[in-house]
Every structure is written in structure tokens, then in C-alpha cells.
Prior knowledge:
By secondary structure, the chain is α/β, with parallel strands linked by helices.
Amino acid sequence: MSPASVAPRPSAPDPSATTTPRPVLWIADDRATLRASRRRLQALVAVGHPVTLAAPDEPWVTAPKGVQVHHPVARFGDARWLLRGLHRPAEPLTGWEEALHGDPVLARLVPTALTVRPTRGQGLEEVHALLAAALAAPRSGLLQRQVIALAEEAPEAVPAVARVRAAAGLAGAGRWPRDDATLQELLRDTATSWHHTGHDGPADPAWCHLVAATFSRGLHADRTSSPLVEDPAAWLAPLRSTPTWQRLTAPGTREPAARPTVEHPHVVLLPGTYGRFEQPVVRALEAAGCTVDLLDLAETHPTLARRLPRPENLAAVEALVERGEHGLPAEVVERLAAADVVWAEWADLPAVWASHLVRPDQRLVLRLHSLDTLDPWLHLVRWAAVDAVVAVGAPVARTAWAALGEREDLPPVHVVGHWLADRWSALPLEREPAADRRLVMVKWGRRVKDPLWALELLRELRREDPRWTLRLIGEDIEGAGEQQDYERAVLELLEDPALAGAVERVGHTDDVAAHLGDCGFVLSTSRRESFHLGVVEGAASGCVPVVRDWPVFARYGGAREVLPADWVVTTQEEAVARIRSLADPAARLEAASRARQQVREAFPPVASATRIAAVALGRESAGEEG
Length: 626
């Protein structure tokens, strides 16, 4: 579906409509909270809602005009029901909390007033988002349940920018409490407002928040499903209906593919802002007679280092697309101009820049990874300038093309998986007896890797045989900034008595192979992968691979289309059955030998490197199969 074909919804209700006045009790714990709440309080007073502000002595002086201020004092009675659900019962009551719970004035207000208590900088802007999800999560310390009615009766107190900002924030933190359709409705209503005002784009904070909410990592990157993957046309429709998005993503006219004719082509390789996978590509190009200049655009233009959509990088994209303002130093532009071929390792912001800076006689090749399919930068690439796309797996290419929709300027796609150095297959297949009961997982400390799935698998194996253990290699999940509820669940399961002494955490290491040589099974429990190099390395090293069929991409082929099918399982029960069926040392040894041979056959180093160079130089026709 093209952006122009997406029709807007009927106009939203007029936010200036009159509402029935309702008493509001607003609790501000400190000056910062009150400062953040001022505009909401002013809006409520302006439309006739009588507001009582409960605040400590110190911050009340900054209260807006028209707000009645009250200083709670616990003089008598036990009114713990006053803020039931707002505080965490496990936390001891401070003097301020005791005053809130015991003050008789507040006790009389609560039965009729709508009670709001913003915490941690969160204010009424979250009310609409929580209302839309039909849940106020009262024990989370956000908002009292009665405040739902306030969003219904005072919509003018929650402007569009606040609604979409709240949605983006909740989704990004993994706290969006209900279905994706509800959030999509909110995005659609927000986009509709611009059809009446005529204002949108990076200069409008609401538009930037709409982009952020549409591509929120919390909704797409580490869940077991993504609305952007399941139904991209419907999910992207609100954003695609905005004029600025249509201008920034307008299809271009494709020119004949450029192919270098010099004997030793000069390649400028952009490593990108995510994981570093470019070194095998560099070696393949050099082996083909190319000179390679590794150019990290993010180091020369700080805005390009920002991975998530923000007003500053969206404004920079607009300046690039509409006015040709790239902001790069002259010497960087000269290095790009000297290239016969530009290779962009990710569909990220540097790739967007390259697509607008290359000349028609320069060849531009872009390699796709799984995270590219979930970010806005994929859509902002000038695809008419891209001569070829390399995908490390067919499911990633299909996901990306489904998200981009019906465009006539898309380039041909070549599927070339990663390949391994010979050192991985140098480890012996025969191992000490303990290896037959030792699982291993590499780079586990992120929600997208789903270590909880692996730990639950281990616990199930140990129900029948307590000899099973798990080695976790890589950065820990604790303190890694992952979604807190998930992190807490992982840490709690690690402390489960059923797993006592069964989990070994190695931490970061530059010598992963040394920790694979005494393991019997390597796990890939990820929710989303494009290839999962780590599990292939484990298989080459002599471990039996057990791969969860990555659920986010399962509809487009998933792990079964990237890796040997007998490695892949759909459920934990299937994983347990596969592992137990190969637990006998002889059976495990035979399966490990077969897996190593499968790696050699499926991902041959010389042939894969040759194909990569051929695609880069325009010497191979497109196709998903190699």
C-alpha cells in the first residue's frame, strides 16, 4: 500500500467541548512534580474543574492561580484507604505518606474527587494512554483508578502531543498494558488531528512522538510478536497518512545499476551504529582485489549515532531530504565521493545519508539485519539509489519488503548468510562426560535473547535428571537496562532452588570458543534473529544446536528457513524432547558431528565470501537462493 492511498479517519471530537465540572484532588510530592504538573492544573481550572492541590509546605508556593492548596497533616483516624494502590505496601510510610493517609480533609475529598498522584515525573499526560488501554495499574505507582474518568471528561487537559508522548513512553518501557489495536487507535486519532491543523513534521513534537511510538522498541524489538511484522500496512497507516512522512519516503526513479569497471575497485564501507559484522566482508572484498576504506559516519556526525527516532535526527533527515543539507565534514564527503562502491552494513541513519549522497555512477549496496526491519530508518533510505540488498536470511528480507509496501524503486535482493572461520571446527567433538549434560548460551543478557525461556527449559530437564547445567556466556542481564519486570523474573528464576548450582555465568569474554569446548548443547532461545551467528559457531565447535523458531519472524519463514530444519523447535516441550533424545553420549556425538558438517555445507566460507564480493561489484544476479 502506498502512503498516498491511506485515507485518514473521520475527524476527532473537538477538544474544546464543554465538560461537567468534577472536583480533582492532585497530589504533588515535591517541587519538581508540581512544576511538571502546572500546565495540566491550569487546563483543568480553565474548564471549570475545582482543583485541590495537596503538597508539602515547600513546593506549594509554585502552585498555579485558581488552585486550592492544602497541606496534609495526619491529625486523627486511619485513612489508609485514601491512596489505596498508589503506594507500594512493602515500602515504609514516610512522614509525608502518613500525612496523606491520615489527613481528614483529604479523607472527605476522596469519595467524590478524582485523585491524581503523578510519580517519577509522570503526569496526567499518561492518563489518556492508560484509559485507552482500559487499565490504570494502580499498584504500579502511576495513577489512581478514579482518574480514568478525568480523561473522559476533560480531554482538553490531555492534548495530542501528551497522548502520543505517553504512548511512546509506556511502550518503550515495556509497560503498555493491553492490546496493540488499542494503541493503533490512539496513533490513528493523533495522526488525524494534523489533517485539520496542517502542521506536522520534526518541528512538531507530537509528530516526532508519533514516529517514536510507531517504531517503539518496546513494541517490536524484543517481544514474541510485533504489529509492525504481523500487519505492517495497518500499523504504519497512521504515520503514512501524515504529509511529512509521505514527503520523506516518496519513491524515486530507479536508474540502471552501477557496476565498477576498474581493475581494483575502491569500496567505502560504512560499519553502521549497531553490532559489528563487517570484518568478513572487508576480507572478502580485499580478496577480490578491492581497496576498502572503513568510514564510520556516526563518528563524524553525532546525530547519526542516535539509533532511536528523536526530534534532532528526524529534523536532520528532513534537512537532508528536502534541502540537501548533510552536515558532514568536507573530508568525509570527499572520501564518499572517491568510492566506486559504497557498502552500508545496516539500514541505519548512515545508510540514509549514503543513499542521498552517492552519484548515479557509484554503486550502493546495503546489508539488512533483523533490527533494521523494525526501525524507521529502513523507510527513510532513498531506495532508488540502492543497487542491491544483501540479507543474511530470507525471512529478514521478506519482513523488510512487507514493511516497505508496494514500491517500484526497490532493488534486487541477494540472500547470503554469515560464514565462519576454520578455527571453530578445530575443537574436538569428543568431550568429557559432564559435557553431555551441559547446555550453553552465548550473549544471553538481553530480553530479545529470552534467557527466561532457556532457564525454564533447564528447570524442566532437571526434573528428571539434576545433572543438567547451563553456562551463560556474555554480559549479564542485571543492570543492563532491560525491561524491569523481565529482568526481575530472570533474576528470581536464577535464585530458584530447583536451579541451585546449575547455572554458571561466565561474563564477557573475547575467547568464546574456549568456553564451548566442554559443552554438549548450544541454545538459541531468541525471540528475533536474522541468522544467530553465535549458535552456528556453537554448532561448528561441536555442540548440538537447539534453536527456538524465532517467533517474531516465524510467519516469514523463521529459523527453519535460515538454519538446518532439524535444529529447530517450536516449543519448550519440543526442545526438551530433542535434548533428552540426544543425551546418550554416542547419540550426542553423532548429532554434533552431523551439525558441524551441516555448517560446512550450508555456510561455506569461500563460496559465501565470493558471493558477497560478486554482489558488491555487480557481478551476480539476484535471488534468495545461492
